Amino acid sequence: MLQSLAGNSCVRLIQSNKSAWYFLFLVLGYILYLIFGAVVFSSVELPYEDLLRQQLRGIKRQFLQEHECLSEERLERFLSKALEASNYGVSILNNASASWNWDFTSSLFFASTVLSTTGYGHTAPLSDGGKAFCIIYSVIGIPFTLLFLTAVVQRIMVYSTWRPIMYVHTRWGLSKPLVALIHATLLAVVAVSCFFLIPAAIFSALEENWNFLESFYFCFISLSTIGLGDYVPGEAFNQRFRELYKLGITVYLLLGLIAMLVVLETFCELQQLKQLRKMFYLKKEKHQDRLAIMEHDHLAFSSMPDGTINSPQEDKTEPFVDFPVLTSPGGDDPMIK
């Protein structure tokens, strides 16, 4: 008997706090997903890192043996200075000295990566004034960019999502959730083709050292605003029409980001995903809200003086004219007679 009561109480407790349990499972799932990513990245990339370290040590050792007049300390100072400059986008190599990082088109490309929060990191401000301006520019520009993208996506959604779904729903009488799901799938296929597959093929043809996988990787890292910076187009020594190429990449990034937001917003409006999100969100307890409002009103009235609160009977005013009371015809009232 006690076990059944305890079991029923546990079931009621779980059902009454179902959203909290779902949220707990969501947090645990996210932590496990982070751990899974760390394990996979470590197991895949650590051997390559160790191999690269060994190769660099061998090259450095061979270089010091061939140049005995150069001490290891002087070589370390030179390499540290060169690497520090490379972190700011300035290379000491002869084949990279012809291109500038802060001409107009390169600066425009940098501004677009800052405002879109992509941030490749291959170029960074060198001066204190540039760093201070970057902070102020980002504080104002990032909310401005969010406002701009929201307005653009809202207008595009009218013609790309809402009207087509309503047209098919009313014209053929199909289920609206089914039409929305098919439309979102087709829109995702078109977006992937136009902003991932085709640009990846173009980048693999224009960039000498990029294959299709690396080009697709750059498109995904850029349009998802991850921006690792390991692949940046237009940085080759013999890049033809570099300024025009950089300008085209800037336009591509803005249009691709808008397309990705449209696709994401289309999927977020699917009825299936709305039901999934409700599992993890807090439900609004309307009954408790009404009780809180009533309690607040009660406290407000109780704080008022007694003379300012009158009963409904006291609010009624007496008539200005006293009408005579009619009696029966057999009565003694002269007016009735």
UniProtKB/TrEMBL annotation:
Q: Where is the Potassium channel domain?
A: 97-156, 193-268
Catalytic reaction annotation: K(+)(in) = K(+)(out); L-glutamate(out) = L-glutamate(in); Na(+)(in) = Na(+)(out); Li(+)(in) = Li(+)(out)
Q: Which UniProt keywords apply?
A: Cell membrane, Cell projection, Cytoplasmic vesicle, Disulfide bond, Endosome, Glycoprotein, Ion channel, Ion transport, Isopeptide bond, Membrane, Potassium, Potassium channel, Potassium transport, Synapse, Transmembrane, Transmembrane helix, Transport, Ubl conjugation
Q: Which residues cross the membrane?
A: 21-44, 135-157, 178-203, 215-232, 244-264
How is it placed in the membrane, per its record? Multi-pass membrane protein
The family database entries (Pfam families) matched by this protein are listed as: Ion_trans_2
InterPro entries recorded: 2pore_dom_K_chnl, 2pore_dom_K_chnl_TASK, 2pore_dom_K_chnl_TWIK, 2pore_dom_K_chnl_TWIK1, K_chnl_dom
Q: Does the keyword Mitochondrion apply?
A: no
- Compartments, as annotated in UniProt: Apical cell membrane; Cell membrane; Cell projection, Dendrite; Cytoplasmic vesicle
List, alphabetically, the PANTHER family matched: POTASSIUM CHANNEL SUBFAMILY K MEMBER 1, POTASSIUM CHANNEL, SUBFAMILY K
Please report which protein family the annotation says this sequence is part of: Belongs to the two pore domain potassium channel (TC 1.A.1.8) family.
Q: How does it assemble?
A: Homodimer; disulfide-linked. Heterodimer with KCNK2; disulfide-linked. In astrocytes, forms mostly heterodimeric potassium channels with KCNK2, with only a minor proportion of functional channels containing homodimeric KCNK1. Interacts with KCNK3 and KCNK9, forming functional heterodimeric channels. Interacts with GNG4. Identified in a complex with PSD and ARF6; interacts only with PSD that is bound to ARF6. Interacts with UBE2I.
Task: Give the protein's recorded name.
Answer: Potassium channel subfamily K member
Organism for this UniProt entry: Cirrhinus molitorella
